[in-house]
Amino acid sequence: MTEGVRVPDLLSVSGLCKSYSGIPVLQDVGFTLNPGEAIALVGPNGAGKTTLLRCVAGIEEPDEGVVELEGRPFRETDPEARAAMACLLDDFDYFPDLSVADHLALFAWAHGAPDPEAAVAEVLRELGLLPLADRLPVTLSSGQRHRFGLASCLVRPRRILLLDEPEQRLDAEGRAWLASRLAAELAAGVAVLFSSHDRELVDAVACRVIEVGP
Question: CB neighbours of 26 closer than 8 A, spacing ≥ 6?
Answer without folding.
Answer: 16, 17, 18, 48, 51, 52, 55, 62, 212
